[in-house]
Each structure stands twice: as C-alpha cells, then as structure tokens.
Amino acid sequence: MHRRRTATTATTARTATTTTTARATPAVAAVVGVLFAVPGLAGCGGSGLTPGTAAVLDGRRIPVDAVEARVAALRHAPGGVSADARWETEGLARRAVTELVLDAVVARAVADRGPAVADTEVAAARAEEERRLGGAGRLARELAAQGVPAEAIDDRLGRELGIRRLAATAGADADTPAGDAAVRRILAATATALHLRVNPRYGTWDPDRAALAPAVRSRPAG
Hints:
With 222 residues, the protein is mainly alpha-helical. The chain is 51% helix and 8% strand. It is built from eight helices and five strands, in the order ααββααααααβββ. The chain has helices at 6-9, 26-35, 64-76, 86-113, 119-133, 136-144, 153-169, 177-193; strands at 53-57, 60-63, 197-198, 204-206, 211-213. Strand 1 and strand 2 (60-63) form a beta hairpin. The protein is globular and about 45 Å long. It starts with 5 loop residues before the first helix and ends in a 9-residue tail after the last strand.
C-alpha cells in the first residue's frame, strides 16, 4: 500500500516515518504494526544468550542496556509515547529490539549488495525534511509522535534509505507489493546468514515477515 510522507500525515507510533528521498515501505510499516499487536512477552529462559543480551547477530550483541536506553528516550521524547503502564513498557521494549535488529540486518543486506548508505545521504534526507517542515524542532516533534525519539532519527532515515536501495537491487519499487516481497526475502536471507537470535522475553523473529513477533501470553486478570 502506498504511503504519503508520514512527517505530515501519520500521528501514531504504528506508522513508519517517510522522507522526500526515502518513503516508508510496507515491510517497515508491518514491523511497526507487529510491535503493538500483542502486549505479552515470552519468558526469559531458554534463549542460550548471555545475561544482559537482547539479541545476537553474527556474534555481535545488542545489549539490554541499548534497549533500555531507546525506551527511555522514547518515554521522554516531546510529544512522544507515554510508557507508564507495564504492558505498554513491554511493547516499547519489543519495538526497540525490533528496530535495533532491523537496523543491523538492513545495513548488512545493503552492504552485501552494493555501497552502504552513506552518512551524507542520511544527512541530506534529514536536511530536506527539516526544510520542508520548517525546522529541526518540528521534524523531531512529528517523529516523536510516531514513536521515534530524537536519538533515533538518523537510524530511521538510514534504514528507510537502505530498504529502498534493497528493493532497487531487485529491480523493484519499495512502495509496490513486488518491492515489499523482494525486500522481505532479502532481509530473511540476511537474518539467517547472520545467525540472528533474539532473547525470547522480547518475542520471536519471524524471517518471512522480517519482524519481531510477540509471543502470545495471557494478560493477567484485573
């Protein structure tokens, strides 16, 4: 499904950010939607990961500290998402892990297929959005309302630029169903090659959907 630039149209954390040069793809939007589909989490045991590890890709850890820092940033973002309730906090943690994993998987997939997304490209995309919206503060507020803290803006823009580049390598447009399917296949293959493992407390990585799917757990009564 085609999406307009979300800096002006989207108002919830379920909608992926878009830029003039990097509009959100269905793959990214689906990931964000999955984050809030089921609020429960799986237990912590049985992951085989070292304590304090949220995920591992190609032997490189994503520490729980990084997840907690992302959640804290989201909580305090001006106009952002409140995470006072226990279940909402868990949803934010799952979102943070998904995005940190997806950043790494997209970056690796792009690097395997051509030039990586350069910092200058991300800076140009950000500058264009700031110009269009009327300043850096306005961009930060718009993205905070979508669940993107200021510290993660460049990560989000880089990820979206990468996803569009991956679709292009497959001869497709990321905004089309064919492009979406192509990106998902690439990300699934890359995650497998990286031997991705996620701490089950945050859910289970679904390679076919390129998303972290929360494990279903009954919500406590009351």
